[in-house]
Amino acid sequence: MLTKLIKPLQWLVGAWLLLAGLVGRTQPLEQQPDRVLSTVGVRDVSSDPTGFAWVAARQGMFRYDGRQLVPLNQLVRQGPQLRGEAYRVAADSAGTVWVGMHDGLYAFVPATGELRQVPLPRLTGRHGHINALLLYRGALWFGRGMDPCQVFRLSLRPPRQPARLVWQHPQGLIAAIEPDSAGQLLVFSFERSWRLGPGGRVQPVASLSHRYRVQQADGSRRTQLARYPLRLPYGPYFLTDSVLYERRPSQPPRVLARWLRNHSSAAVPRLNVLELDSTWYWLGSGELLALSIRRQGPPPGLQHYPLPLAREWNGWLCFNRDRTGLWAFAEGMPGVIKLRPRQAPIQALPVAGGQRLSTRSIGRGADGRLLVGSYSGTFTQAADSPLAPLRRWPGEAPGRVWYCSLRLPDGRVVVGFENGRSVGLLAGQRFQEIEWAGPHPDPTGKTIFCLLRDRAGRLWAGGQQGLFELDLTRRTRTRYREGDPTWPLHNCEIEALSEGANGELWLASNRGLYCLQPATGALRHYGPDEPAPYQLPTGLLRAVLVSHPDSVWVGTLDAGLLLLHPRRGVQRQLTLGQGLPSEAVAFVIAPRPGRVLWVGTHNGLVRYEPRTGRRSDLTTAEGLATNELNRQSSWYDSVRQRLYVGGVGGLSFLEPQSLTTAEHQPRLLLTGLTQHHAQPDIIRTDYLTGALPQGLELAPGDAFADLALSLSDDVGPELGRFMYRLRSTGPAPWQELGTSNRLRLQGLEPGDYTLDIRGETELGTPTRNVLRVPVRARTYWWRRPGVWAALTGLLLAVAVGGVYRWQQRRGRRRERHWQAEHALRQRIAADLHDDVGNLLTQISMHSDLLRETPHTPAQTRDRLDALAIASRQAAQQMSDVVWSLDAGPLRLSQLLDRMRDHAQELLPYAGLDVQFRVAPELPDPVLDPALLHNFYLIYKEALHNVVKHARATTVTVQLAAAAAGLTLTVADDGRGHDGRPRPGGRGLANMQARARAVGGTVRYEPLPTGFAVVLAVPLAG
């Protein structure tokens, strides 16, 4: 009876050990549906070296970048358009995508956008579907047709040759082509299988098409027929499509696990194993099975993961784009599940009874147990059980909430309480109160927020009523500068303390940041109301950490994380705009060697490298118990090298060194370009397969260009972060895009730029590549700086030339005017000399004769009459000269008035009547001085001739305007004249000379009764 009981107990213990080994070894498997791929019925998937996935689906052929499915037809720039269902796809190492369609094989080159159909012999069967594709040893093997079915080989090495028919069978359909362990090919149909040997020799190998296949992440794979089980490495363990068993020599096989096999056909291996991180994965019926393969250890344990796949369809399992996880789908049915084996970087500590703690202080006691203060009480964990649940503290707890704690070198723990006893000392499980020793009333009942032991061994506490100094020898506490009621720190809530390189204390408070020299009492304040460089964007501070004499990190409640230089002010600020998940910072801690900051926020934990700018955001998705972390609720265990962080939903821990090793680095992909084109006014989207080959050009009038980005990371592509910079001639800072995968270029100044784009995963792992895209922003030709400079120079030259020519013309005009005035003055001087001088000479002669020669009264009277006439003529001549000099520019009407005055002064003394006939429409232009002078003298000469010689009674003066200018007619009714000059007379000749001087003419017309002088002058002259 005892023997019968021992055997089942052995089985139970073995099963328990197997399960324990399984739990200890198997990594958690994340699974989630792919919301994009699940919109189509996937038949086959292949990934290219650049990081894109190519999806053959019932709806056609697609390119997948982790965020968007793009039909292949939208990528084709040259070649035919694909129609109908895509059956198989394979991407080779050169980037060419081979697509099996219902009407044949196609080759697409993403770099050029060229699509071509592979020429094949004429089909004689029922259809030309490409049902099998295999890239193997530098060639593409594919199967075509049904009844008969054919196998072709297409060399991928240049120079490429046409596809060669290797083998043909009169019946059936080629469903799969696989390489075996010997390097030969296995060809599978629905009911038969063959082995292709060298030279095209074919050998039937089985009556059924079942096969087992093992694929590795590096692309290698092996296939064997299903009549032989797969042997696992490192032990006598074997695997079939539904059983895992152990077979040892001289012992019967022992079944370790069973499951329902996956539904399969000739196209799907009966057992399709994918090996990833020393774990085998394959599909069962409605589940995923995982088997960890280890060189040493207990028997392998099998893990079952339910999968919601359609069981009546062929189940497929394949590697994702970056080969760090798996895709599972039912062939032809919507629904693709992403699978990622991943060790959670953070582990949340459970609490006995399932209670959720809002944690405060974290530390270890003298016995090594973890001590956790929370709003629900104090909890502890055994020192030798890092994953054990937290249990309530069994010892004395004088304060309800342990708000902060500080372990001393001797193992004792100083505890600051909330709203109770201010500070206590824990030795073992006994508390000793640190009593108030100040002269003023005890500030008990106020919270102590932070504790610090400086390098000199002094203990400091900061709380709601300022800064306190602790004396553990006397078990007393006193407030710093207690005797000074005006001391600013008495009215502050000290949230955090940090010691500087020179022993100064940095205090974060609700009224800004203070720097205190404890020895001298010197205090410097940083806040929003201080002048630069002591100004901060906010005064509500929660954390402070001195990482370098010139680097003080300050965590704020509403302005993110600040980097402060003590003398230069704020040097850097991380906010939501710079990628910080929350602007409310709870704590800042920097475990040695201090190159990495751990920043707790109200929306997760951030790992930040100040030198490189790399940042990792850790949330509940990475195992954090809660995203809302509590202020000062963090502690680094330097012995075990663990970082503990607490929040409103519990306590978590992680090993920082586990995150310093870079995980898989995805590739950064440029997936699309949406650009506004001004000519014509359209918005066009081009889907890309990598970097822009010719760069990006923004033409004049283009409003924007949007670049679409993605990562070859299929776990959380929407959580990837992107940064960019646009360089022209000098360096440029990196700009954060955050999780937005759209980069818009807009409003660029004309010129040539280089656009650099980089990305990182949600954990801060940078991408393997940085995209560099040449960008040229053009402008209208008349807006180019060179054109404007040339136009400005031309306009300046034209202006200078115009001013110069204007000055030249003005100078010449002044010269002409001066010459004309000079000539006029000379003529006036000549006239004065000839006319007035002659008359004055006559007056002088008559005067001398009257004085010296005796005359009769009659002679004397004649002499006096002659003297009077000469005097009047001289006065008239002088009057005319003065008038012509003083009048300045005169109009024709003013000249006519002068002509009337002269006629009235001259003709009545000679007994002549005068008549003026002036046309009513006569113009009134301003006359040139030369024209005015000569016109008037000709007129006077004509009147004097009438007085002297005509013996007339009436003089008629007529002034008319014509197209050629002015016409002056002086006519008399005297004895007439033939128009020829009198002997010794100069009057007619002078009139001709004066008329020619102004471009006019004078003609003499005898009248039936009298004589007329006609003067015609142009007004322009």
UniProtKB/TrEMBL annotation:
Q: Histidine kinase domain location, by residue?
A: 831-1021
| Name of the protein | Histidine kinase
Q: What keywords were assigned to this record?
A: Cell membrane, Kinase, Membrane, Transferase, Transmembrane, Transmembrane helix, Two-component regulatory system
Query: Which topology term describes how it sits in the membrane?
Result: Multi-pass membrane protein
* Listed GO CC annotations: plasma membrane
Q: Where are the transmembrane segments?
A: 786-806
**What PANTHER family has UniProt attached to this entry?**
NITRATE/NITRITE SENSOR PROTEIN NARX-RELATED, SENSOR HISTIDINE KINASE NARS
Single annotated GO MF: phosphorelay sensor kinase activity
Q: Which Pfam families match?
A: HATPase_c (PF02518), HisKA_3 (PF07730)
Q: Which InterPro entries match?
A: HATPase_C_sf, HATPase_dom, His_kinase_dom, Ig-like_fold, Quinoprotein_ADH-like_sf, Sensor_HK_TwoCompSys, Sig_transdc_His_kin_sub3_dim/P, WD40/YVTN_repeat-like_dom_sf
UniProt keyword annotation of Kinase present: yes
Q: Where in the cell is it found?
A: Cell membrane
Q: Which Gene3D superfamilies match?
A: 1.20.5.1930, Histidine kinase-like ATPase, C-terminal domain, Immunoglobulins, YVTN repeat-like/Quinoprotein amine dehydrogenase
